[in-house]
Amino acid sequence: MRRVQMELSDQSFDRLKRLKELNEGSYSDVMKDALRLYEYILDLESEGAEFMIKRDGIISNLKLFI
Questions:
Q1: Quick one: pLDDT at residue 29?
Q2: Across-strand partners of 60?
Q3: I need a labelling partner for 22 at 20 to 30 A (CA). Which of 30, 32, 33, 43 fits?
Q4: What is residue 45's three-state secondary structure?
Q5: Distance separating the N- and C-terminal Cα atoms of the chain
Q6: Could you tell me the residue range of the domain that residue 18 belongs to?
Q7: How many Cα atoms occupy the beta-carbon half-sphere of 12 within 13 Å?
Q8: What are the pLDDT digits (tens) for 48-66?
Q9: How many domains does the chain have?
Q10: What distance in Å separates the CA atoms of residue 41 and residue 54, rounded to the nearest whole number?
Q11: Does the residue 16 lie in any domain?
Q12: Nearest CA-CA partner of 31 in 61, 50, 66, 3
């Protein structure tokens, strides 16, 4: 196990805190889940996958990490 120290802006920390509350876990849990999801999305994108979102019956491309 390794310890990582980060500096976050107030806005980023508020986002992390909100995700922690939604996840009902720890800051570490949120970060581990975020890293897994980020890796998964980047792997799929590198294989040519496109992500779509459907809102109010309209389907459009979802642009991630632009």
A1: 94
A2: 53
A3: 43
A4: helix
A5: 32
A6: 10-61
A7: 5
A8: 999 999 999 999 998 887 6
A9: 1
A10: 18
A11: yes
A12: 3
Sign for the pseudo-dihedral over CA of 44, 62, 50, 46: negative
Query: Token pair 């720890």 is at which residue?
Result: 26
Q: Does 40 map to a domain?
A: yes
Q: Is residue 2 included in any domain, yes or no?
A: no
What distance in Å separates the CA atoms of residue 38 and residue 27, rounded to the nearest whole number?
16
Tokens of 23: 């996840």
Any domain includes 19 = yes
Q: pTM here? A: 0.76
Of 29, 9, 27, nearest to 17 (Cα)? Answer: 27
- Listed in sequence order, the residues at least 6 apart from 31 whose beta carbon sits closer than 8 Å to its beta carbon are 16
Task: Take residue 22 and report the two structure tokens written for it.
Answer: 């939604």
* 12-32 per-position pLDDT tens digit: 999 999 999 999 999 999 999
